[in-house]
């Protein structure tokens, strides 16, 4: 089988409300690039990458010179063709490779008539548990609904998500407001649902000393882990030496060099595996194997996803034995999806792993066109700008917090 074409389409998917984070916001929508890899046998594989626009589409187009004629079964050869580690110093293609790996696995599964998890060692679970992903939010521009800023709003939002989706673990995305206020929010949340578990993730916005202070203050609650309170392996190591909560990261251990550094001189206990950041599903499984050997925890990270990327997270979550924490997903913040059947459903806080051949999702062509049109209307948005504070930018560690009053 040979690859004959690669198509990339940028789409914009509206969110229930703009999501605030330590660097700015998702401005009420996600921009994603949907990949279709076509073969000479008529089988088409699907992939997805965060961000988009002309430059992303051109980046995929440029890889046609490398991959037209390539057999999609030859996954390792594809890695070295486009992601040779020394050549990558000049052309960082890890995320492009991830989207193409998803598509090739989809093609292989469809060709063999088996779901992707069968290609990866077989599934160990039928569904993958997810944590709620709680964000501070601006109100929806059109409806005025959905704001999360006060403690009451945060608890109401968590209650609503619990009722709708069945979450029993909650991740509070933070690093937006003064850590003193965010501590009040986190403790109030834990107090509201005392049987659930929690994770706090300010995206590295706190200083080492603030992180230690925060960590001491939350030691009494049921924490899954303390996620990237501060920036950098050395900062995380200093926090880890001073708190009694497992430390987690999706930012400072995102490749094998960093993973080996963390094993030689531990700074993080739980590695959050992201199928895009690590360059595909298979590198995540390789990393999970190393974590299993060294008895580090793993979980599945979300960098924002539509249904195709979600399917990669489900197949990953299905096959790794050491998945001891629920996964993260932004998915419940989306208002729609580009796959046939609409958004996948949560049942008891879990999503079922697709059993159809390949990734198990089919592109809804009308939805793809609808949201590609929306991208053309609205364009991109700057992830590292806050629509409520146009002149502000984040320092690391940050000290200029948004006003919560
Ligand atoms: Mg994180």
UniProtKB/TrEMBL annotation:
InterPro entries per the UniProt record, alphabetical: DgoD-like (IPR034593), Enolase-like_C_sf (IPR036849), Enolase-like_N (IPR029017), Enolase_C-like (IPR029065), Mandelate_racemase_C (IPR013342), Mandelate_racemase_N_dom (IPR013341)
Catalytic activity: D-glucarate = 5-dehydro-4-deoxy-D-glucarate + H2O
Domain Mandelate racemase/muconate lactonizing enzyme C-terminal: 151-246
Domain of life of the source: Bacteria
Protein keywords: Lyase, Metal-binding
Pathway assigned in UniProt: Carbohydrate acid metabolism; D-glucarate degradation; 2,5-dioxopentanoate from D-glucarate: step 1/2
Annotated EC: 4.2.1.40
GO molecular function, one term: glucarate dehydratase activity
Protein's recorded name: glucarate dehydratase
